[in-house]
Amino acid sequence: MLALQLLVDGVGKGAIYAALALAIVVAHRSTGLVNFAQGEFATLSAMLTVALTGLGLDVWLALAVAAAASFAGGALIQVVIVRPTMRRDLVPVVIMIGLYVCANAIGQLTFGQNPRPLEGLFPAGGLMLGGIRIQWSLIGVILLQAVVITALTLFFVRTKIGLGFRAVATAPEASRVAGIPVERMHMIGWGIAAALGAVAGVSLTNLGVYVEPHMMTTVLVYSLAAVTIGGFDSALGAIVGGTIMGIVESLVTGLVPGVSGDAGILVSLAIITLILLSRPQGLFGRERVTRV
């Protein structure tokens, strides 16, 4: 029974990991870069949501405003910071690390170190199903991520901008020749990734996590493991990988003696190493072929 309870809890955590992993994939497909600051962007969005609810805004409205602000901020960062450095060897990697440090510092300076609760998006309580306790917040988080992923899928499949983004992600030079504004698609991709991070950050608070500067650090590690499992260019892989990591982390930390809390990160690092050694492109990623 304990294993089933941990499995259910792991699916809820996996939904958060999948959301942030999807944000990493969108940013990567946009510009080919791994945004190590994705978790910190999500943290800043959660902090903004707390500030807005403190001003009297409903938590859902505050989340919508924070997601919109995150979209604008992510797009601006891509234009001002990322775009000028994309063609300069190791500079983008340094920029990604710098973004992580700067975002974390901004959070500490503006929000402080003290953890703060955020009003729940979903009602308290839950239900018992076959002896397993399922919180309404857990169900709500899973459904919210499902709605966001469905909406994002429809956007990429049914809209002109979404189709343009997919074309640029697949063949940027051919897209440029065809008249698609490649730089604009890159900007939109980073904006979408930041907005996805906002939803992930606020959703995490509904699983009992308080808002503080380091709230997404562990989540980022699990999400990177999820992307490694699924593939850095696969949205489906991010979802599957996030679910796998949530379940594995919950079962390992709950059942293996001596392994708890942040010690579960070792499992993530082990999984990342194994995937990179056996299938570097991930389970759903495309193998790159270099012609000479």
Automatic annotation (TrEMBL):
Keywords: Amino-acid transport, Cell membrane, Membrane, Transmembrane, Transmembrane helix, Transport. It is found in: Cell membrane. It is a multi-pass membrane protein. One of its GO terms (molecular function) is transmembrane transporter activity. GO terms for cellular component: plasma membrane. InterPro entries: ABC_transp_permease, BCAA_transport_permease. The chain crosses the membrane at residues 6-26, 33-53, 59-81, 93-114, 134-157, 188-209, 221-248, 255-277. Coiled coil: none annotated. GO terms for biological process: amino acid transport. Belongs to the binding-protein-dependent transport system permease family. LivHM subfamily. This is Branched-chain amino acid ABC transporter permease.
